[in-house]
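Reader question, answered in our methods column.
A reader sent in the components of a multi-part assembly and asked whether the whole thing could be modeled at once rather than chain by chain. We filled in our standard form and ran it. Here is what they sent:
COMPLEX SIZE: two components
ENTRIES:
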Amino acid sequence: MQKMVRFYMKFYAYYHSTAAYRIRIALNYKNINHELVSIDLMAGKHHDESYKKHNRQARVPTLDDDGFEIGQSSAILEYLEEKYPEPALLPHDIKKRAWIRYLSQIIISDIHPLNNSGVLNFLKNLLNQDQSKIQLWYHHWVKCGFDALEAILTDHPDCKSFCYGDTPTFADICLIPQVFNAYRFGFPMNNYPTLRRINEHCLLLPYFEKARPENQTDCPLDEKK
Amino acid sequence: MQKMVRFYMKFYAYYHSTAAYRIRIALNYKNINHELVSIDLMAGKHHDESYKKHNRQARVPTLDDDGFEIGQSSAILEYLEEKYPEPALLPHDIKKRAWIRYLSQIIISDIHPLNNSGVLNFLKNLLNQDQSKIQLWYHHWVKCGFDALEAILTDHPDCKSFCYGDTPTFADICLIPQVFNAYRFGFPMNNYPTLRRINEHCLLLPYFEKARPENQTDCPLDEKK
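And here is the structure of the entire assembly that came back:
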C-alpha cells in the first residue's frame, strides 16, 4: 500500500504582486509543492479580517508551512533556502552570499517599497497627486535603483548569464519581477542593457516563465498573453 | 616580538542614519573592531564621487571588509552574522530565524524606505508638499508598520525582554533605531506599549547605548545629551 504523505504548504499571493512573483520563482526552481490561495488585491481582499489573521500587515505574500506563517518576501526566500537548500539560490561562500543579498536588497528595500500600490494610492488619494506626478515619482525611484544596479553589474567579473554567476540567485529572483513592474508602468529600459540581458535570459527558463504574472491561474483572461 | 595583526574593516556611516544605527549595534554586540568613516549626509557628502565609488546608491551604510564592499543594512547584518557567528543575533532553528527576519523586514522594507530623508525631500521639493503633508505621510507609514508589529509581538509567547526570546536579534537591531526615528519626527508612541517596553529594555544595554546617534563622534555637540 502506498504511504500517504501529508502535505501542507499554503502560499497566499496575487498574480501581479511583485513580491509574490519573487516567491513563485523560488518555489518553481526548488520544485516545492504548495497550494496557492489567491488574495484579490484589486478587490481589497487583503484587508479582510479573514486574511489579516494570516498577515497582520494585510500584504501578500504569506507563506504558511504547516501552520507556521510568515510574510515579507526576503524572509520567505531565506526560509525556503534554509529548508530546501538544493538547488541553491545562494552560494556557500559568505562574501558571495553577502554580495547577492546586497543586490537583492537594492530592489527589495529601495525600489519596490516606493512603488507598490499602497504607496501610489496614498500619493493619489491623500496627497492629491495627478497621474503625471505619480509617474514622476515612480520613474524616479526605479531609475535610482536601476542606475545603481546597472553600474554595479556591468563589467563586474561575476555577472554572467545571471546577476551572479551561471545559476540563478536571490538577485535574479528580485530583478525579474521588478523589470516586469517597470515595463508595466511604462518605465523606459533602454539605458539598462545589462539588466535587460539578464531579464531576457531568465525569462527563457521554465521556472521563471511559469512564475510570470500572466501565467497564473488568478490572472484575468484579458491580461493573459 | 609581538606579531603585527593587520586589521581593515571600514564602516561608512553617519550618526543619525537609521540604517547605520542598526549596524553599529551589531558591531558593538559582536565586539568587531572597525574604523568609522563619517559621511556627512546633511552636507551632501554621500553624493561625492569619492564616496559613490564605495556605494553606487550614494547611501550609508557601507561596510568595507578588507576591500570587499557592500551596502544595504540587512545584507551587512547577515554578513556579520555569518562571519562572526558568536555572540549570535539569529538562533539556529530555521523557523525562528525566519520569524526574526520577518519582523526585521517589516521595518527594513516597509517602514524605513518610506521615511528616509531622500523620500521626504522628494515630497517637499518635487511634489511641493508642505510640512503638514510630509508629517501625514511619515506618520501613516510608521503607524502601518508599528500597528502590525505591536499586534504580532503582544502576547506572542516568544516575545520576552526582546522581540524574540532573552537575547537580542536582528529584530531588536531594526526596532530600536526605528523607534528613535519615530520620536525624532514626533510620532506618538502611546499606542505601542510592547514596542516601548522592548525599546526601553534595549537602551539600558551597553551595546545599544553606545550605538545611539547622540553618542557618535560625528554627532554635533548641540544634539548630544
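What stands out: Chain A has two domains: 9-87, 94-209. Residues 94-209 of chain A form a domain with the Glutathione S-transferase Yfyf (Class Pi); Chain A, domain 2 fold (CATH 1.20.1050.10).
Send us your own complexes using the same form.
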